[in-house]
């Protein structure tokens, strides 16, 4: 496949070849989309996003891999259970395990961005036998983020949005149009607005209420379970929410090979801003 044509052809490939499925996790339907054949790659989006976030990577990998992109619970076509307790990290992890099992697999390569990255890190630490390899886009290891929230006033300032999201009824200040403001292509933005109109805005913020650290921030000195599989990380350095200082010392929490690629001209949505580079590097790294 010509990687240079991925962005132009990704939408057509998704529309023509993608298969849509639903996995059931204790009554919560998890929607996911599959293209290609080969070793399983599961892709997990973040906030605010949906499975379509990965269209370029799906197009660029589908000739060698079976790629499954998930709608997280609360988003788009997936189930939307009420209550913060339904959005704890353990439940989010179990959704991904359910998708892997629904696909008839015991192991997978897992790719995550933002909250999807947090879920992917959690899978690596709590379910290491599931993972072949781990790929993270703009989500530092949780130990690094906690350290920066405790020590770095700049990261504290740049995390004000998360504290705002943790407030009661914060979802009432959001609309599908506001959440899609980061999408620049007009046709793509329409798809995002449609997906967010199908989503539960309160559920989307429950991720922050259930899992994001709350002030006063305290650094956790307890031993961390090291990640056992190879890890590839991307970080767009123009990310205004997750500063790159949290990347420091990541190697301490990984008991395997770590490859870190920082991209100066990309922001938080690195798989969009630098889609061709990200896809090329993922492909090369997975085929090594």
CATH class wording: Alpha Beta
CATH topology: Rossmann fold
Determine the CATH superfamily: Alpha/Beta hydrolase fold, catalytic domain
| SSE topology string | HEEEHEHEHEHHHHHHEEHH
Task: Describe the model.
With 288 residues, this protein is α/β, with parallel strands linked by helices. The protein has one domain (3-218, 225-287): Rossmann fold (3-Layer(aba) Sandwich), CATH 3.40.50. The protein is built from twelve helices and eight strands. It has an eight-stranded mixed β-sheet, with helices on both faces. Helix 4 links the parallel strand 5 and strand 6 (131-137). It is globular and about 50 Å long.
Task: List the defining traits of the structure above.
288 residues, alpha/beta, Rossmann fold, 8-stranded mixed β-sheet, 12 helices
Map the helices and strands.
Elements: H1 6-17, E1 19-25, E2 28-35, E3 40-44, H2 55-61, E4 66-70, H3 89-102, E5 108-113, H4 115-126, E6 131-137, H5 142-151, H6 153-158, H7 160-165, H8 176-179, H9 186-198, H10 201-211, E7 231-236, E8 258-263, H11 270-273, H12 275-287
Parallel strand pairs: 3-4, 3-5, 5-6, 6-7, 7-8
Antiparallel strand pairs: 1-2, 2-4
Helix pairs in contact: 1-2, 2-12, 3-4
Give me a quick take on this structure.
With about 290 residues, the protein is of the alpha/beta class. Helices cover about 40% and strands about 15% of the residues. Helix 1 (about 5-15) packs across helix 2 (about 55-60), helix 2 runs parallel beside helix 12 and helix 3 (about 90-100) crosses helix 4 (about 115-125).
